[in-house]
Write a structure and sequence with these properties.
YefM-like fold, 4 helices, alpha+beta
């Protein structure tokens, strides 16, 4: 990890951004105390993911969590499942 003072970072921002693009992590200090860390963004697997990450960075969308939804219990309608009711109604059309 590279450590750089805030004033040095401001003076040579382009140089440090290039290093971050190349994969370096830079610790920014102010008067010897760490205040920030610059690191490359994770690579998106697809163009759609890049667009979603961009929208999330702008605060326009919220990315989902990795938690999966609980299984859904079937809903009973007139004593039958919804799927059975739909199939029955479709059979009436023909």
């Amino acid at each position: 990890m590279v450590t750089v003072g805030a004033r040095e970072l401001k003076t040579r921002l382009g140089t440090y951004l290039r290093r971050v693009r190349e994969g370096s992590v830079i610790l920014v200090t102010e008067r010897g105390r760490p205040v920030a860390e610059l690191r490359p963004l994770p690579k998106a697997a697809s163009n759609e993911e890049e667009k979603l990450l961009d929208l999330a960075a702008k605060g326009l969308v919220t990315l989902g969590t990795t938690r999966r939804a609980r299984s859904i219990e079937p809903i009973q309608v007139r004593g039958e499942s919804v799927a059975d009711t739909i199939v029955e109604e479709r059979d009436d059309r023909f």
